[in-house]
Amino acid sequence: MGSIGAKDVPQLLDANGRRIDGRGLEDLRPLRITAGPLQQAEGSAFVEWGDNKVMAAVYGPREVHPRHLQQTTKAVVQCKYNMAAFSVDERKRPGLDRRSQEISKVIAEAFESVLFVEEYPRTSIDIYIEVLQANAGTRCAGVVAASVALADAGIPMVDLVPAVAVGKVAGTIVLDLKKEEDNYGEADLPMALVPRSGRLVLLQMEGHMTRDELKRSLDLGVTGCKKIYEVQKQALRDRYAVSAPSAGAEVAA
Amino acid sequence: MGRGGGGGGERVLVLPGEEVPAQGLKPGFGTYRSRDDGKIYASVMGLLSPRPPFVRVIPLSGRYIPQRDDMVVGVIQAVGPTYWLLDIRAPHFTPLHMTGTPWQMEYGECGEYLRPGETVIVRVEGIDEQRRIGVSMNGPGLGKLEGGYVVEISPTKVPRVIGKSGSMIQMIQQDTGAKLVVGQNGRVWIEGDNDQIRRVREVLALIDREGQKVGLTDRVKALLDTQAGRTPQHEDYDRPSRDSGEGGSEEVHDGSPPRPPKGEVQGPTYFEEGQEFEEETQHG
User: Fold this and answer.
1) What is the pLDDT of residue B24?
2) Is the CB of B266 less than 8 angstroms away from the CB of A119?
3) Which domain holds residue A76?
4) H-helix or E-strand containing A101?
5) A111-130 b/e (C-beta count within 10 Å ≥ 16 → b)
6) Are residues B141 and B76 in the same domain?
7) ipTM of this model?
């Protein structure tokens, strides 16, 4: 603490190992997923995760636009991740930027390895992710939402894809960073998992970790993903509940 | 778990990535065999429906997957010199060649017969390995659909609209007085006056929403009664009605002759009301 230029760095961990919002080191923020909120889309999902609010809509398989992207042996997966201008404290300039292009690309590639793209040659599967409110971990929330939306759209896939970020905060490995932890922490490690096979389809890192910390982070992330996986499944079951439907799947942190 | 027990077949809802009890069966539609452990898993969200030698999952949502001999309701999207492009709700637009119509016509005359936005009922002639679809308008019950109103429902709910041996569609037609043509692609063409169309739309919305649940026939009956101002009879929704044995609780494919096995290819094998459907389109 007290390093040069550090201003108003919040205390991210207290003496009892409680985090800035009172969570333990390995607790998720409250997660709530609603499957199928949109009429127009073929599949959709709304994810409220801590202070994140993310909507995903899926279209396809359908004709590819622009045409030259079409592949004769498989479907192309196109993803557009976008943050609303009002999603962050200071107005975000709307439209594509380097960050959203990168996130769109890694999410599209993550799902391309999970969907049975060979089933639909010469088509496009389009995923739209709109971040309405952001509080760190929106790409993970986007993956979680998109995965439920794809299942809702009836597109064949190997498994649902949960995602979560692990980070290093005040020298400690913690699960599911929130904004302050992301901004002032030492590392951020978002990942997306295919629970059935145990493979990671998205893994990025910002900041620094030791090899040992990385290993522990991956283990912690996988554990977190499995909890999120259950919420995703419950959201889909609720959508087609044979009994009375409930409002949405939830997990208390 | 999504077990909707009750009278008829037990319905188990499976989600992508959930293991499917294989019992020596091969992976059919909506499933895959994992290269990691050799077990069979679901690839779509749907209802488990084993049909030896395959285990299948009947999807609850998704695009229409064309199958040979399906009758589908298409909307003209574009007109070419010798063909039209149809939207049949498949992943691709589908060409209808002028030789596949009952009309004697010359090169360049397509626009004089069918214009964009018009509705036709056609038969799927075949699909190749690139998923190119061929359709024809030659045959009984096929042709241009004039007037009327088109409603879209999920293609997977089509067997429920038709019902066992066409019982559901007959009930709807008799009660409302409207004429229906149901395409296997989930497009329903309705002919009738505004009130009749309104009633049919409400019924179709009910089937689309609750078609996977038990006791569908009773609920449709109740809705028809309410619409007509009759007092709905109270029925025990948990029990399928005894007379027809329908009750919305039969497996989607019951009562139709089994299709020949299609080999290991994951072919969709769940729209199986062909015969009843053909009858319907003839008087429909």
Assistant:
1) 87
2) yes
3) 31-240
4) helix A98-112
5) bbebbbbebbbbbbbbbbbb
6) yes
7) 0.89
